[in-house]
């Protein structure tokens, strides 16, 4: 059945065609960096691919795969176990842990990495305490796990990224039909059998999505792997570009990373291609009945849920607060205020643009949900899966060529030297932010449009409103909460983004993220603590919002499914 919006006239109006053209143009801008990467990779200056293939790529690829395997296992086990415990079991502190398990999302991986290096390194408080207690004089007299290693990177990334799996799996457990689980109990299924034979198979699509998101963040990371000395593909792209001055080689490595991302997306979709689970047939859908744990099981469940919260948030948070308290006098210095302003202004501009572009894409698809536009919009939202280093390379070359062309023309025509107008003004960085985080905003906006009935559009058209007037007078007022949420999530993601910021920032331009990275690279941990704490505090805002909205949306879903009281 065709959408009611497509039945209003035989042909689309000129305004409608404008929305479609704008959406296609935006999709082209998103795909431009990817096209540039392919072009640079296949037309490098000098024969660099042979050298990379024999010396750099095998080791970097092996390290990256091992890192992703470890992070996938840690996030999967932690996220699924904690989601099952808080959803299906009664134990002290369950209500608090239900949202507290999300707070590690507020802390970027590079901040947790430098915090654990400070805590667990040879000169840190833990090893110093060990030496004092047992009288050791040197590190050769005792064994202690090396934090600057692949294992350390897996531990840190797993501690920070497991909420992706926890969030999706918890939602899956909550919406599973209680009747299905109750039938399994009546057939004699134990709690363990219920988990492994019923709940876990039903939750496999959600688990796959959560692990895929965690692995994409893992592949994008450059701060943690640099602190730990783990030479992944992301690190190799950064090193090849900046330290070896080979942009073509970096583009070829970036192309290999892009292939891994596409393979990861394909595997995620392939793994759940035949899995379709629906509980809408249960008209009296209710939350699953929780198990009552005995005292020692309740204590064990509490400990298992507290460990990831402490590892991913409390330990680095306490360290940051302690170190930042020693440098509070720097809060009002010109350098710190300038850094804060740079971060906030860039993130605000990028967030505003992502929301505006998301509105354009979602509304264009609402007007014409079929044809090539649907594919173009889907392509425009793949930026979140592209690592920041890959985007940086794809954006640098087109913008640098445009800047050089503009400078040459202005010099020839007016005698003016414009220099790197776009890259030097931070436009390239905003472009990278918009491309990378457009999917975050678009998902929110598309969901908001989906809750608005098409009959409102038809009513507005019968009153003489065109599509633009319908958008501004009908849709946007109704979408204000959704737009605020989309802007907030995009803003915080832009604040935390490190790889693209390092590679595309203008000369002598510092943000909170780059300040943390450079200070931690010099092992000036107290200097990095204050901007790190600022990023964490800002990052807590969407986490708290996410915890509240996820709970309220589930309650709303239940209220709609349950029949009202008889009158």
Please explain how this structure is put together.
The protein is mainly alpha-helical. It has 2 domains: 239 residues, MetI-like fold, CATH 1.10.3720.10; 254 residues, MetI-like fold, CATH 1.10.3720. Helices cover 75% and strands 1% of the residues. The protein has 23 helices and 2 strands. It has a two-stranded parallel sheet. Helix 7 crosses helix 8, helix 13 packs across helix 17 and helix 17 runs antiparallel to helix 20. The longest helix is centred in the first third of the chain and has 40 residues. The radius of gyration is 26 Å and the shape is globular. It starts with 13 loop residues before the first helix and ends in a 6-residue tail after the last helix. The N terminus and C terminus are likely disordered.
Quick overview of this protein structure:
With 567 residues, this protein is an all-alpha fold. 75% of the residues lie in helices and 1% in strands. The longest helix has 40 residues, at 49-88.
């Amino acid at each position: 059945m065709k959408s009611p919006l497509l039945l209003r006239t035989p042909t689309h109006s000129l305004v409608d065609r404008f929305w479609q053209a704008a959406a296609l143009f935006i999709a082209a801008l998103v795909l431009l960096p990817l096209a540039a990467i392919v072009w640079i990779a296949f037309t490098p200056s000098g024969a660099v691919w042979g050298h990379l293939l024999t010396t750099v790529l095998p080791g970097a690829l092996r390290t990256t795969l091992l890192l992703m395997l470890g992070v996938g296992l840690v996030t999967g086990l932690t996220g699924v176990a904690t989601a099952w415990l808080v959803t299906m079991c009664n134990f002290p502190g369950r209500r608090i842990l239900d949202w507290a398990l999300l707070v590690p999302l507020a802390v970027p991986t590079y901040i947790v990495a430098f915090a654990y290096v400070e805590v667990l390194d040879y000169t840190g408080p833990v090893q110093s305490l060990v030496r004092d207690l047992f009288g050791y004089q040197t590190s050769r007299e005792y064994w202690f796990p090396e934090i600057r290693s692949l294992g350390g990177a897996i531990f840190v990334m797993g501690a920070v990224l497991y909420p992706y799996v926890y969030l999706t799996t918890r939602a899956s457990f909550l919406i599973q039909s209680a009747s299905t689980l109750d039938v399994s109990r009546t057939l004699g299924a134990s709690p363990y059998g219920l988990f492994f034979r019923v709940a876990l198979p039903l939750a496999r699509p959600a688990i796959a999505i959560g692990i895929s998101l965690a692995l994409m963040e893992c592949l994008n990371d450059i701060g943690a792997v640099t602190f730990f000395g783990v030479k992944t593909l992301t690190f190799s792209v950064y090193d090849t570009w900046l330290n070896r001055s080979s942009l073509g080689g970096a583009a070829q490595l970036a192309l290999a990373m892009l292939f891994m991302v596409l393979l990861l997306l394909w595997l995620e979709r392939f793994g759940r291609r035949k899995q379709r689970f629906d509980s809408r047939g249960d008209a009296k859908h209710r939350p699953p009945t929780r198990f009552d744990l005995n005292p020692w099981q309740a204590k064990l469940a509490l400990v298992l849920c507290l460990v990831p919260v402490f590892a991913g948030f409390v330990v680095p948070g306490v360290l940051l607060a302690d170190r930042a308290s020693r440098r509070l006098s720097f809060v009002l210095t010109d350098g710190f205020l300038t850094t804060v302003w740079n971060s906030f202004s860039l993130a605000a501009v990028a967030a505003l643009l992502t929301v505006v572009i998301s509105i354009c894409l979602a509304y264009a698809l609402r007007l014409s949900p079929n044809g090539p536009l649907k594919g173009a919009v889907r392509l425009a939202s793949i930026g979140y899966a592209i690592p920041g280093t890959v985007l940086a390379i794809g954006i640098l070359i087109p913008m640098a060529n445009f800047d050089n062309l503009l400078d040459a023309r202005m010099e020839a025509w007016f005698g003016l030297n414009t220099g790197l107008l776009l890259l030097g003004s931070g436009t390239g960085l905003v472009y990278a932010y918009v491309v990378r985080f457009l999917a975050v905003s678009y998902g929110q906006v598309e969901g908001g449009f989906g809750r608005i009935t098409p009959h409102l559009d038809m009513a507005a058209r019968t009153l003489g409103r065109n599509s633009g007037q319908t958008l501004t007078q009908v849709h946007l007022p109704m979408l204000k909460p959704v737009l605020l949420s989309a802007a907030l999530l995009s803003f915080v993601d832009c604040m935390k983004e490190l790889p693209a910021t390092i590679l595309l920032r203008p000369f002598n331009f510092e943000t909170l993220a780059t300040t943390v990275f450079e200070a931690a690279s010099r092992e000036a941990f107290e200097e990095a603590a204050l901007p790190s704490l600022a990023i964490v505090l800002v990052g807590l805002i969407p986490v708290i919002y996410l915890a509240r909205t996820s709970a309220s949306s589930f309650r709303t879903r239940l209220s709609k499914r349950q029949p009202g009281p008889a009158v």
